Amino acid sequence: MSDLTATVQKTKTGFHVEGYEKISYDFTFLDGVFRPENGQLADCYRRWGRVLAVMDLNVYHIYGEQMEAYFGHHRLPLTIHQTKIGEKAKTMATLLSIVDSMTEFGIIRKEPVLVVGGGLVTDVAGFACAAYRRNTNFIRVPTTVIGLIDASVSIKVAVNYGNYKNRLGAYHAPIHTFLDFTFLRTLPTAQIRNGFAELVKISTCAHLGTFDLLDRYCEELIGTAFGRADHASDDVRRAADQINWDGIHEMLKLETPNLHEIGLDRVIAYGHTWSPLHELVPETPLRHGHAIAIDMAYSATLANDRGLISDGEHRRILNLFSRAGLSMDHHQFDEPLLARATAAILKTRDGRLRAAVPHPIGSCTFLNDVSPAEMNAALRRHKALMKEYPRDGEGLEAYVDASDTGYTEQTDVEIAATKIAALQAGDMTTNGHASGAGAHGAAKANGHANGHTHGATNGHTNGHADGHVNGHANGHANGHTNGHANGDTNGHATDHKA
Description:
It is a single chain. This protein is of the alpha/beta class. The protein is 39% helix and 14% strand. The protein has 15 helices and twelve strands. Strand 4 (51-56), helix 2 (57-73) and strand 5 (78-83) form a beta-alpha-beta unit. Helix 6 packs parallel to helix 10 (288-305) and helix 10 (288-305) packs antiparallel against helix 11 (311-324). It is globular. Mean pLDDT is 84; it is low at 406-411 and 426-497.
């Protein structure tokens, strides 16, 4: 939420306007956000007496009944716009389908839209709110590691344009973000790994204590959904909570003085110099965490070549990526791509490279004087080092699938399995979920919108009746089909921010 104060002064040739915008928003850590006894979220809507939610379809399959029961308990009628958003469907057409729902609902000027899902959903729905009447409030409930750790921190909202990530967007802060880490119980391991990269990012360049904990508990954190799985030890749970708290706090400290990115030397842009172009180069795009891990690993090699980190620190970073199953190299990450990606990022960063690199681990410096020859030499050395690692440095489950794209719905078996995991969260000692999620028939995301769901099944899906269809290739006859990923999805759509 923001407020603006401004002054107007006469000049010899006209007027001078000077204004300052106050931006205010809150974060609440709350395991079990949809438990009826936790009224914090409902309290945000009592003034309005109703709720419009934009929700990832796969999250709805798992938590939809629980969410409906929650708002029913608090006597707040709930309308859900169900959506499937992947990188290929993170488009203006998807945004406009959300806008249609806001119009049909009759959203009031300051009434907040509730956005539930991974970073892709919060990005697109947040941009829709930024555009609707130029400023509509929203509340975020992120459901993925990237959504909780990274996307929740920023006020950037966006859609992709062409092959460029987040090319169209705005700066629009939610009024509140609820951080419920029990959502990770139903997240696929590949997505836990994907989000792990964001924590490596912030810790390598800004918080040595967090890096130490990631290094100590790497495999256990990924294997236990950051301590939320039943078999997680108390030590891992405590470490995960410390990592999450410190990681979010550190990113907020770095981002809040520069919310509108007026300053372009950004510590949290470690791993985001060459990855924005590389991520979408493969025919099946890389997961964001793997794309930035490649960038970070290569940047660490470049930093080591310059003596900014020691050989031991360099290997410590590479070994952590390898243990996590994150990518450190890719066959299409080559010299021509480096040249193209460098040219692209120079435009974004006002003509300077501003490559964030560790100096040493836990601190950061920025490189602006790296020549093409130095970049290429570092890349050749990096690829030679990768021969010492499993899969020549390529990661596990590195490419997007249905759990990223949201193009296809879960099977009944998958819904049942994740539903059980959501139910079991109620057995946790610290505010787990008391009731499980349901498996509604749910709306088919195959083209035209089917109207709102009022605690039921026919929610809007991506695209208009005569516009773009952002789902599986069963779109409306008058639409264009943008999605193509096959297979079943196990979890929540995700995204990145930096």
